[in-house]
Each structure stands twice: as C-alpha cells, then as structure tokens.
Write a structure and sequence with these properties.
This protein is an alpha+beta fold and 413 residues long. The chain has 3 domains: 42 residues; 116 residues, Hect, E3 ligase catalytic domain fold (Alpha-Beta Complex); 150 residues, no CATH class. 51% of the residues lie in helices and 14% in strands. The protein contains 12 helices and 13 strands. Helix 6 crosses helix 11 and helix 6 crosses helix 12. It is globular.
Length: 413
C-alpha cells in the first residue's frame, strides 16, 4: 500500500491485491517500450547527423530548404525565375542608398510574396538576404546543429562544431563584388549609427596608422577643418615627426588611387592574379594533406558515434567508454591542430579570392570617381599607413599596397 501511494495511487482496501499485478506488469512493459523507443530515436538521429556530416565534409550537402530566390531540384539550388529578380532588386536598392526599412516597406506595399505567400516584409528579412552567402553561389554549412541527447534541440553553432564553407556550390544570383559592397555598407552604417554608450565611428576610424611610431590616428576638428593626427605626435611634436593631415586630402588620395586602378587594372592587378594562379597550380601538396586530415577526422568522428551507441545500449562499460572516447577526442584535437596550421600556411586560395574580389569591385565600379565613395573605400581598403609626411600607403584587400603622394599645398607650403 505504501508503495502505491508514493506513485500517487489511491489506496482501496476493498480492491483485491491480485488485481494490481497486471497493472504493474503493464507499466513495466510500457517503460521498456518507452526506453526502446528513446534509444531508437537517438540511434536514428545519430545516423542522420552522421550522414549530414559526411556529406558536408565531401561538399555534397548544401541545404535541406531553399532560401528565398532559389528552388531545390535534385538537391541542387537553382535560381527561381520569379524570386531571383527580387533578390537583385534588394541588393541594388541597398547599394543605391535605401535603408533596409525602406526596402521592406516598398516590397510590402507592392504585395511581393515570400515565405509561402506572406506579403509583409521586415527589415530583419532584408538583412538576412543581404548577409546570406547563398546568393553569391557559396554555402556555409553547419551554421546550427541538433543536440546529441533528448530532448533534441537546434542550437546556433558559435564554434562548438566545425563549419564547412563550400565555394561555387551552385549558381549565384548576385556578384561577389555586390555582396562585399553590401557587407561593407552595413558595417559603415553600424559605425555611423552606433548603439547607446558606444563611441561614434568615422570613415577613417581605425584605418589610418603612423608608419614611424605605429600609433593610430585620431580625428580632430580645428576651426571647422577636420584633421587626422598621429596620437604620438599629438602628445608631443618631438615624439613623432608625422604631422596632421586634412581628412579631405586623404579622401582625394583614395579617389586618385581608385581612378588609377580603374584605368590600369589589366596592367596592375591582372598580372598579379595570373602569377598567383600559376603558383597555386604548382603547390598542391598541402591541399592533399588537408583532405587526408579531413578524412581521418571524419573516420574518428564516426568511431565516437559508434562508441556512444554501444554505451547507450549497455554493451560497453562506463570506464572503458570514457577511456576510448578520450583517446579518440585527443586524436581529433591533434588532427584539427595540424589542419589549422596547414591552412594558415597555405594562403594562396585566400589571396586569389581577394585579388579576384578587388578586380571585380574595380571593374564594376563607377567609370570615374569624382569624389570620395564610402562604400568603395570600405570594400577595398584595409589600412592606410602614413609612411612619410607626404606619402600614404593604401593597403588593399589581399595585402596589395599602393602609395599616393600628397600635394605640397596640403601642408600650406
């Protein structure tokens, strides 16, 4: 009687004791079935995760659901003839100066459908499209993952698991240059409209550095004229010889550099790209080694799943399970470190991608730049180094450097 009360059953002295036995057996069977069902669910989920992981590592898995602008056909993303023009329109509108809210409001007023017929657009949806690498034909895989144990939950991947970036996985809708310019413009607008408590950022904030002492430049407004001055020089003129430079002079120097690259891209940038492609074709050993490491990591990950399955079914002792799992995880950690070092040493792919991007931005840019363009500047320039009193070294994306000399009248002599 006490046993039944602890489980919330009502005592009844008139009820024959023998009638409780079938109910207890029924509960035991139900518990057993529940355990079996749970194990089966975990097994199926683990098998699916393993299948997805292998396909991600091989680059054959792209997505389970097509984003707006695409449709899935035989597991391949194909631009949708009705939605793709809307994606192009969103990028064009944003690059022309429209805000995300303005674009969303216009699409809503026109009744443009999305998400299965929904016609109400929000700025968050516009932001998602502008930041989604799918529209340039690439795929970042495992942005989120499902937890290993019940209850299964979908979690955003912030570094807990490997992510895989596949370049050229499907047909793009917009150009890589447009995508990078939109990204640069988003960063620019975030700096100009910072959140509460944040310091306002300007176009040249954290961009200009002194080539003599290494200090960054700070903004100063003197008699209505904006200057950028070396922080060391600002503390004492004897500490650093690099004097302050008018902001407008830096803007004009970038404008001259852009126009020079625009007119001479095939003589300046294209030969560099050709040399990088030649070097890439010669050195393929590290790429083969990375592929070999990826395959070994995948095999060890499979072993971990098998160990988990054996442990969950009671076929393996806890102590042995922990020992084997630790050995496998240590090996995976070592292989990942080797892979990271190889990828850090082999910069050819990144330099080629950056060179192509720079050429693409320059080629698609305005034929002649009459004044400073914020989007072009942030899309192409990583850093400006003041090497001499009258010389600015522009370090572009990909590490390419070009020097512009400031005219004498900038310093009033």
């Amino acid at each position: 009687m006490r046993f039944r009360k602890e489980f919330g059953e009502r005592s009844s002295p008139s009820r024959p004791l023998g009638r409780n036995k079938p109910r207890r057996a029924h509960g035991t069977r139900m518990g057993m079935f529940s355990t079996v069902a749970q194990e089966e669910s975990s097994s199926i989920s683990n098998n699916m995760r393993w299948s997805y992981l292998r396909r991600m590592q091989s680059g054959s898995f792209i997505t389970c659901k097509a984003p707006f602008g695409y449709r899935l056909a035989d597991n391949i993303l194909i631009p949708d003839e009705r939605e793709a023009p809307v994606v192009r329109r969103i990028f064009a509108g944003y690059l022309s100066g429209k805000s995300m809210e303005e674009i969303a409001d216009r699409l809503t007023k026109e009744g443009v459908p999305h998400n299965g017929g929904e016609t109400k657009w929000h700025h968050t949806g516009i932001r998602y499209i502008l930041a989604n690498e799918k529209y340039i034909g690439d795929s970042l895989l495992q942005k989120s993952f499902t937890t290993d144990t019940l209850p299964f939950q979908k979690v955003r991947n912030t570094g807990q698991k490997d992510r895989y970036y596949v370049t050229g996985s499907h047909e793009p809708i917009i150009s890589r240059a447009e995508f990078e310019q939109a990204k640069a413009l988003m960063i620019l607008r975030q700096r100009q409209c910072p959140g509460r408590g944040e310091r306002k950022q300007y176009n040249l904030s954290l961009k200009v550095y002194c080539g003599k002492c290494g200090a960054s430049f700070r903004r100063r407004n003197t008699n209505g004229i904006v200057y950028w001055v070396c922080r060391t020089h600002d503390r004492g003129k004897a500490l650093c010889e690099i004097r302050q430079i008018p902001e407008e002079a830096i803007y004009q120097a970038f404008t001259r550099l852009y126009n020079r690259l625009k007119q001479n891209s095939r003589y300046i940038l294209t030969p560099v790209l050709d040399q990088l492609l030649t070097l890439q074709s010669i050195s393929t050993i590290s790429n083969a080694k990375v592929g070999e490491l990826n395959r070994e990591i995948a095999e060890l990950t499979k072993q971990n799943l098998i160990l988990n399955r054996l442990r969950s079914k009671g076929y393996m002792d806890s102590a042995i399970f922990m020992q084997k799992t630790n050995e496998v995880n240590q090996r995976i950690g070592l292989l990942r470190t080797q892979r990271r070092r190889l990828l850090e040493k082999d910069e050819d792919d990144k330099m080629i991608a950056d060179c192509r991007l720079l050429i693409g931005i320059i080629d698609k840019g305005t034929p002649y730049l009459a004044g400073f363009d914020e989007v072009l500047f942030h899309s192409t320039v990583d850093k400006i180094i003041v090497t001499e009193r009258d010389r600015l070294k522009f370090r572009m994306i990909g590490g390419f450097e070009f020097t512009e000399r400031l005219p004498k009248e900038v310093f009033g002599r």
